[in-house]
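Workshop exercise sheet. Pairs work together: one partner reads the sequence aloud, the other fills in the structure field after running the prediction. Swap roles for the next sheet.
Pair: D.N. / O.F.
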Amino acid sequence: MRNRRDFLKHSAISASAFFLSQTGALASCGQTTNQKKEAEDSPYFKVRGLNIGWDSQKMLDWPTLAHEAGVNLLAVTVSGTVSGSDPWKKFLADCRKYDIQVENHQHALSSLLPRKLFEEDPSMFRMDENGKRTPDFNCCPSSAKALDIIATNALKNAKDYPSTTGRYFFWQHDDGKMCNCPADKELSASDQLLIVENAIIRKLREDNSSNTLAHLAYYDTIPAPSKIKPEEGIFLQYAPFERTWDYPISDPNAKKAGKDIINIEYLHHLDENLKLFPAETAEILEYWLDVSMFSSWTQPAVKLPWKKEIFLSDIASYAKRGIRDIVSYVIYVDQDYMKMYKDIGFIYEYGQELKNYRV
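Structure field:
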């Protein structure tokens, strides 16, 4: 049975509320003792997430929004003193109230291996194409000292911002270059990254054996690792950043202007990654709702070009591969966006379609 209901949208942590009247489909599932029936009525997608960034001054009331939309995970990017702030404490309390999980997603290499250490030991940092050590981008994965520092700092960050899921995300430098030293130059970017991730997961699991860590397939690490194997606790996080969202990811001809990779090639790379990483723990990190990307990371933001039919085609492609965890960026959707466009019904559609999806 489908019911009409108002979809409430709330403003910042501080005060005033926005409202959107939205007709929505809510799956009503009666209780049953038949396990097969329960399985059929349960959402196929276990993780239905949004990556909201973190700006406590402009944030909408994301816990309430997520709850109303059927979203069960909010990912943020936080560091420093945020953990002790009142907005952060309220955010966590509100997420607990609605049983919404919280994770910290971050491009972390620059903070895990502080650049100031370059003067102390340049060998910890990557070698560029000209054979020169440089403190930019990523580390030298052949440096045991660098790996130890990175892993130790990752554990400290995990303790400062504990994930409610036990999953952690310490990503490579954003679009960063890898090491060209003699020990590493024959390793792909994906293999170099996996060496670093293996060091981090060993440290995280010394503290808690149930902790897991994402291997971020993104930009140069989209191809699957070929020489390095993931240690126990590493799962795939797949982010098809250079695709076009004007067409489904399964389209055999579509590609973003100025890019060489065709949409369907992302599915081919995903299939190769799934030979190494289990589908049941893999996560797709998408950009369907990422206003910041569609705005070319400049403000004022453009109105989101939400294409529901493409989203539905994409999640079917992912589900076909056994993937059950979906997260989308939703950056720049904040109080300013609400004032300009008054409509964030796409969040409701995103969450409800994921919640109601069945195979």
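Discussion prompt: The longest helix spans residues 189-207. What would you look at next?
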